[in-house]
Amino acid sequence: MAQQLGFFQERQRRIVASAAGRIVYFPAVFSAVESVSLFETLLREIPWSSERMRMYEKIVDVPRLVAWYEPGQELPESLRIIKMRAEEVLAERFNGVSLNYYRDGADSVAWHSDHNEGLTKNPTVALASFGATRSMLFRSKAPPRRQLRCDLEPGSLLAMCGDIQQHWEHHIPKVRTPTDARISVALRTKAVTAVSP
Questions:
Q1: CA 37 to chain centre
Q2: 9-188 — its CATH code?
Q3: pLDDT of 108-136, one tens digit each?
């Protein structure tokens, strides 16, 4: 395991860093064969659902399919593999998993910061990507506004750590050219409170 961790640490590419946080990209955390197999398995086995949301006084379809697994909920084998690999690379422990299925270039996610409510303080949010390469854009909240881009390749892992969510937003833009499907697996550490008997 130590050799594997060292290998990924050498290959990481830091996108941005602050005094208390960073965004780091790890290419090829999963091999090409693993990536194809995991994409096909997730596509087939995950109970995908559509959601609706309010936007500008209208109720509209969320432009992607989604799935959620809460702490304590049993994960399918494919997600256990992804979670364990991310935990090895990042030396973190995750207990919450959500998935986004971008069916084509018309599917996207708007500018946002991940909500920290219900998560541990200054959480790490890890994104594992499978299928087509899609670009994720980042922009700082405070002026002067900075904007950065990272192409999320199949088999890669992106980690947003520390106070990044307080200072940066991110999104997956629509793509006009024909684009294959992509699945994103987001891993988080949720704060679990004990229930009194």
A1: 19
A2: 2.60.120.590
A3: 999 999 876 666 778 899 999 999 999 99
